[in-house]
Design goal:
Number of strands of chain A: 11
CATH class of the largest domain in chain B: Alpha Beta
Distance between the termini of chain A: 45 Å
Strand order of the largest sheet of chain B: 1-5-6-12-11-10-7-9-8
CATH architecture of the largest domain in chain A: 3-Layer(aba) Sandwich
Oligomer: heterodimer
Structural class of chain B: alpha+beta
Order of helices and strands of chain A: EHHEEHEHEEHEHEEHEEHH
Shape of chain B: elongated
CATH superfamily of the largest domain in chain B: Bira Bifunctional Protein, Domain 2
CATH architecture of the largest domain in chain B: 2-Layer Sandwich
Number of strands of chain B: 17
CATH class of the largest domain in chain A: Alpha Beta
Number of helices of chain A: 9
Strand content of chain A: 25-35%
Shape of chain A: elongated
Helix content of chain B: 25-40%
Largest interface: A-B, 27 and 29 residues
CATH superfamily of the largest domain in chain A: Periplasmic binding protein-like II
Radius of gyration of chain B: 27 Å
Strand content of chain B: 15-25%
Strand order of the largest sheet of chain A: 2-3-1-4-11-5
CATH topology of the largest domain in chain B: BirA Bifunctional Protein, domain 2
Largest sheet of chain B: 9 strands, mixed
Number of domains of chain A: 2
Largest sheet of chain A: 6 strands, mixed
Radius of gyration of chain A: 20 Å
Helix content of chain A: 25-40%
Distance between the termini of chain B: 38 Å
């Protein structure tokens, strides 16, 4: 049995997402003095001891808030889209500026969403890999929709008549155009965020505040 | 065997866990009693119309049922509101202050997690009808002493003062929708959103920095000094003075080291009017308990009285203690007695009278089966008839030894 010391304010465990945000996260951490060389090179290892009490664990992006909520990591880097989708009980401390994209509602060019209710017999089908964001967006409009949860290639759904619209992440908008889709509404703007566990945020206040400030400064330069 | 499920978010507690939980409760009760808090028991379900008086949005998600007249009932989602009701009705003719405690389960639909269940057990107390730093300090001291008595070694109590932040918003002139947006961002623990919201409010840069600064103020007693930089006007000064006084009195109880100031404690600003606190323990990602001063609630029930209290999540406390090395149960002498139904019934009765727990086993039971039965029931000793005397075995192993009847108690009591 591991005896833990909650007043141990010197160690810090950070969850970093593998995938698109991996490289920019490591770049930023390097700027504030984390020695991330091994993390960059070794793509099989999941836990890295960096010395000075710092540990990095690498996880799937959507798992980062879970690790942080449960206290398996004190802090983590994660996209705002994941936070909006999963509504984990964590502190959101800083906008790190990279990984900028938007969550939008889009429909085919020839489909006017204003007349959508008649056309779709009042229940519209919307495909997304963000079922919770989609549901709460349409709930806020008072509209009933059927959310069709997909894992990838969301833009395909309208063209094969699986759905009348989609809710998805866009950065340039090029993918939408190629699939004859038009953005109808921006639901949220997203970027990478620094998050912290509720308890760590209190017990390791100095360490975490300092990290947040340094990361924010580094992200502006 | 057929697999018959239980509802999501509930759990069965088996003997090994139940004995620990009840022991923790008895330790808590001991401390509550020593400060003269009296236990009350309220119905498991209340009339929805009674719970609505509290005006709590978070009660919307509750388990509900109908009674035989079609009245909507609500499984109690917490204990503070039922106690406010009780104090305003059944105790209406008594003079405050009231020191009341409870040991009860409450119910809230949730996605179950470790330490988060739809049915959860709490031990808590409310001190109603008194409002001073001395009273706040007593409640904090009872909390710390309770956790210590349960054997929780590593914990801190995050302590904030909600009137300090509210007074800051007042002095900066943040009201209406802006104020709500600030509270919402804080309730979501979204400091990024908070800085965006604050940037959009028409106030001075100095006030903006103060709002963001206060929410980050947390740490040891130095926070009381740092907070002075943000004081604007007598209300904030008063709030800070009061917090300092409370801290001083908590230190007199010997618990200063447990207090971790957190002036940006971000919970439920509508509800809490004064101190607000939560118990933080190690790697358990959420608080073991929480509480604060809520001077507005009783007025809603027609008896305006100040009040302060806390609730400890017994399941969470149990997890936290287990993570820190486990519950250390006191030794309870007990034996399994082969022939304890008959013919050794008299011996069994005598032993029970002397305070030894006796599990009776049939006289023809073989030693191996008897050992397994004793072990399964968590009993450390097995006694078997042996000729005209008895033989005593330790279930942990080793050879048995012959004992006389009159020696059995001594042998077992020694452990």
């Amino acid at each position: 049995m591991k005896v833990i010391n909650p007043l141990d304010t010197t160690s810090l465990r950070m969850a970093v997402p593998r995938g698109a945000m991996f490289a920019p996260s490591l770049d930023l951490l390097e700027k504030v003095g984390f020695n991330v060389a091994e993390v960059r090179e070794n793509d099989r290892k999941l836990v890295f001891e960096l010395g000075e009490g710092r540990t990095i664990i690498t996880t799937r992006p959507s798992d980062v808030p879970t690790y942080v909520e449960y206290g398996a990591a004190d802090v983590g880097i994660v996209g705002k889209d994941v936070l909006l989708e999963h509504k984990r009980n964590v502190y959101e401390l800083a906008d790190l500026g990279f990984g900028v994209c938007r969550i939008v509602y889009a429909t085919p060019t020839d489909c006017d969403p204003e007349n959508g209710e008649l056309k779709h017999l009042s229940i519209m089908r919307v495909a997304s890999k963000y079922p919770n964001i989609t549901r709460s967006y349409f709930e806020s409009l008072g509209r009933q929709v059927e959310v069709i949860e997909l894992r990838g290639s969301i833009e395909l759904a309208p063209s094969v008549d699986l759905a009348e619209g989609i809710v998805d992440l866009v950065s340039s908008g090029e993918t939408l155009k190629q699939n004859s889709l038009v953005e109808r509404k921006e639901i949220a703007q997203c970027s990478a965020r620094l998050i912290a566990n509720r308890v760590s945020h209190k017990l390791k206040a100095k360490l975490i505040d300092e990290l947040a400030v340094r990361l924010m400064e580094a992200s502006r330069n | 065997m057929k697999n018959t499920p239980i509802p999501s978010g509930t759990k069965d507690v088996l003997p090994a866990e139940a004995i620990e939980q009840r022991w923790l409760e008895s330790r808590i009760r001991g401390v509550f009693d020593s400060f003269a808090y009296q236990e009350v028991i309220t119905p498991t379900f209340e009339l929805q119309s009674a719970m609505d008086v509290a005006g709590e949005k978070r009660f919307n998600r509750s388990f509900r049922l109908f009674d035989e007249r079609g009245e909507v009932l609500m499984m109690r989602p917490e204990m503070t509101t039922p106690i406010a009701r009780l104090v305003s009705t059944r105790m209406a003719d008594r003079e405050p202050p009231f020191r009341l405690s409870y040991f009860a389960s409450s119910f809230r639909p949730t996605t179950p997690q470790r330490g988060r269940q739809s049915e959860f057990h709490q031990a808590g107390l409310e001190l109603i009808g008194a409002d001073s730093p001395a009273v706040d300090a007593e409640v904090l001291a009872v909390l710390c002493q309770t956790l210590t008595a349960c054997g929780l070694e590593e914990f801190s109590v995050g302590l904030g003062e909600s009137s300090f932040f509210k007074a800051l918003l007042d002095s900066a002139g943040v009201k209406g929708e802006d104020r709500e947006a600030v509270f919402n961002a804080l309730a979501e623990r979204d400091l990024v959103k908070l800085s965006v919201v604050v940037a959009g409010i028409d106030i001075s840069d100095d006030d903006r920095d103060a709002i963001l600064g206060v929410t980050r103020l947390r740490g040891g007693s130095e926070v009381l000094i740092e907070a002075q930089d943000y004081v604007r006007g007598p209300a904030m000064e008063e709030a800070l003075k009061r917090l300092a006084r409370t801290y001083y009195l908590v230190s007199r109880y010997g618990f200063a080291g447990r207090i971790l100031f957190d002036l940006g404690i971000l919970s439920d600003f509508d509800y809490y009017t004064g101190i607000v606190f939560e118990v933080l323990s190690g790697e358990l990602g959420f608080p073991v308990g929480s509480g604060g001063r809520y001077d507005g609630l009783l007025a809603r029930f027609g008896r305006p009285e100040p009040a302060v209290g806390f609730a400890i999540g017994l399941d969470r406390l149990h997890i936290a203690i287990t993570d820190q090395g486990g519950v250390s149960l006191p030794y309870a002498p007990g034996i399994a007695l082969v022939g304890g139904f008959d013919p050794a019934l008299d011996l069994a009765m005598q032993l029970r009278e002397k305070g030894v727990d006796v599990m009776a086993l049939p006289e023809d039971m073989k030693k191996k089966t008897a050992m397994a039965a004793a072990e399964g029931a968590g009993i450390g000793s097995l006694v078997m008839p042996d000729g005209d005397g008895f033989k005593l075995f330790d279930t942990a192993g080793g050879k048995g030894r012959k004992v006389k009847i009159e020696d059995i108690i001594d042998a077992v009591a020694a452990g």
